[in-house]
Amino acid sequence: MSRRSGPTAGASLPYSAAARRLADLGRRFYARGWMLGTSGNLSAVVARDPLKLAITRSSVPKGALTPADVLEVNADGAATRRGPGRPSAETQLHCVIARDRGAGAVLHTHSVWSTILSERHANDGGLTIAGYEMLKGLAGVTSHEQREFVPILDNDQDMTRLGRRVSAVLDEHHGAHALLLRRHGLYTWGETLDDAERHVEIVEFLLEVIGREHHGATV
Amino acid sequence: MSRRSGPTAGASLPYSAAARRLADLGRRFYARGWMLGTSGNLSAVVARDPLKLAITRSSVPKGALTPADVLEVNADGAATRRGPGRPSAETQLHCVIARDRGAGAVLHTHSVWSTILSERHANDGGLTIAGYEMLKGLAGVTSHEQREFVPILDNDQDMTRLGRRVSAVLDEHHGAHALLLRRHGLYTWGETLDDAERHVEIVEFLLEVIGREHHGATV
Amino acid sequence: MSRRSGPTAGASLPYSAAARRLADLGRRFYARGWMLGTSGNLSAVVARDPLKLAITRSSVPKGALTPADVLEVNADGAATRRGPGRPSAETQLHCVIARDRGAGAVLHTHSVWSTILSERHANDGGLTIAGYEMLKGLAGVTSHEQREFVPILDNDQDMTRLGRRVSAVLDEHHGAHALLLRRHGLYTWGETLDDAERHVEIVEFLLEVIGREHHGATV
Amino acid sequence: MSRRSGPTAGASLPYSAAARRLADLGRRFYARGWMLGTSGNLSAVVARDPLKLAITRSSVPKGALTPADVLEVNADGAATRRGPGRPSAETQLHCVIARDRGAGAVLHTHSVWSTILSERHANDGGLTIAGYEMLKGLAGVTSHEQREFVPILDNDQDMTRLGRRVSAVLDEHHGAHALLLRRHGLYTWGETLDDAERHVEIVEFLLEVIGREHHGATV
């Protein structure tokens, strides 16, 4: 399996730095309307062997996110540090992606356009983004002629089952930098937290362009 | 009557804390474009028995809201502390919702998308939102398969009459987390002010998704 | 002539307070995208008899507006204090409105939606806004059943001629709170600067609602 | 060749002032969503003879841009000061524009609307913007009756070839204030950095108006 968007061993950050940076990122994505309410989860790898992630805890409003709202979990998604709150149910998806992609960070946001496009293209199993210069901001992409396929998976409240499907999709689409959960939101990742943050911004930008172009297509 | 979105006795806050938090919330909702001009009202329960609410006073620009712009009213909507200004005419609706839902906070915003959808779906008496992960942010909702009905009421300048209609609608739709006044705006509430704030963000997000999907439906 | 939206003698502010508040207002409207580049002009009456206005000077970027970017002009639009820069060509329109409406402040913004609607409804000579609760934020309006007519005038680079047409339109539509210049932008005013600011927010909100509803009307 | 939008010798800034101002500009354009991820490049002329530019270095996230993220390059796009990072591949386009237009600053942004319109009008070789008051913010334009042609060039990863095409287009459309690269973004420039910044805001505003009007045209 090729891992174009994340090497076998992505970066890892000390826990306190990861917590601080995830909190900052959450507040900024919230400001853009990508993490309204308590939606979304952000994680960064803090140890590789065995795998440990810093991840935002469940049900925290992202507009006021602080480092104290971040937990440490192991590869099974169980908390490994004492503290209030519990890991999000979706922690398992973060663990699957960090493991299968060797990602250093996994970011999950809920935006208006990702929600709309995840429904519009659901029956095609995904969405191809091609011909945009902005694609060059994705790790390893060197030309706007890139054909980037963003898989769309049906939403599911059973995280073990959904985790297996995510793993299968990552394996099938080994060049993918992101995936959408239907009527739910975006997952993207990167070798470092900087890469993953850039991927969120690029994919969100491109989904908005495609979403709005589609409206214009009526004429 | 079941009260899934607010128990019989929601939280209450000390008056000064409520005033401070409502002022902060007003400035943030204004920044998002949900309380432009002097539109909207925010309230939080400060005593339960008898009921007292802290509520923003009438005709105050929300972009510069301070704790001094918050009044205390009783269950009839009459001011119970000395100070400048008068309670908003819509105070009665806040009292009805706080009483009937046992809510700890009632928030009323005017957004572009809630205004548009309150008109588009008025003849159906409301709008069903179903299948979105974001619904899980509403109190007591555990799956995206939730079918959330948002009742729409015709607007009215007679607040006593409108209050009775709101009460009847809350009773009929005992699972509702929010309602729309036609060409007017959104009312939502929660057991705590945090819950109510989250409900505003979630409902606004979902209305924007539905509003924009509709446009795309032309193709 | 009735003057429902501004009495014969609106408020006036000391010059230094007016300059400070106009600069602050310009930066905030710029942040909302209503005064991009150097577009728009803001004025407030600083003396009534004879009329003097504080007004933003020509060609100043509004995102960095300071009190030093404000000039004082007389009823003919001529500068009455020493200082750099010259009054905007559109100063004459501000003077006409301040005089004819007895307004204490006149605000002119360029937004995306006012530009679009000023073209879409140009052949009707204006646009009626009716049935929205938000209308109650306009001075003297007490019900959402208000039918607010916003006149649209063809754009013109000859300010003396345009000033006469503005004056005629204000006289014909004595209840109007705002007018649009075609493919140009919004003029609104108020008895005080607070009123005028609120009018900008309300009219911009309603134009956005109407602009977006129109799109949805295809279905 | 006439150079209506930039004289033979535009302004130049000391390097440290240029670096500081470009960093500030990048963060503000990022906040508006015009430079998401690492997209876009900003430059200002720091010496005329021989030509030297301060330019943002390649692959820097614009939301956290600092003066240390700015490089100095010569007319061939080669770095002329020691420091980390390398010039962007698109530096050559900045040099071509600074030289051919005598511009003091060249700004390249990626917005949603410029991307959409660069595709929609690609087959016409460009887009005419006419009749908008906002056009008067472009250098040398004195009436809304201006017919501003914005050329659109196919995107290309070969910067030497693309630079020659840009040069030819600037020569053919000697009155142009901006150009679009297809599915890529906007280039604009000005005699000073202030002029160029204003041109970005004006062109982005007008593209958004035209993009949204087009949607409405279905009715």
The main sheet of chain A comes to:
8 strands, mixed
Tell me, what's the shape of chain A?
globular
Oligomer: homotetramer
SSE topology string of chain A: HEEEHEHEEHEEH
Sheet with most strands: strand arrangement of chain A = 3-2-1-4-8-7-6-5
Global structural class of chain A: alpha+beta
Report the helical percentage of chain A: 25-40%
Main interface: chain pair and counts: A-B, 25 and 26 residues
**Low-confidence spans of chain A: pLDDT under 50, at least 5 residues?**
1-8
Describe it for me?
Four copies of one chain form a homotetramer. The first copy, chain A, is built from five helices and eight strands. Chain A is of the alpha+beta class. In chain A, strands 3-2-1-4-8-7-6-5 form an eight-stranded mixed β-sheet, with helices on both faces. The longest helix of chain A has 24 residues, at 193-216. Chain A starts with 14 loop residues before the first helix and ends with a helix. Chains in contact: A-B, A-D, B-C, C-D. The C-D interface holds C 33, 36-39, 61, 63, 110, 112-113, 115-116, 119-120, 155, 157, 181, 183-185, 211, 214-215, 217-218 and D 28, 32, 131-134, 137, 142-144, 194, 197-199, 201-202, 204-205, 208-209, 212-213, 215-216, 218-219.
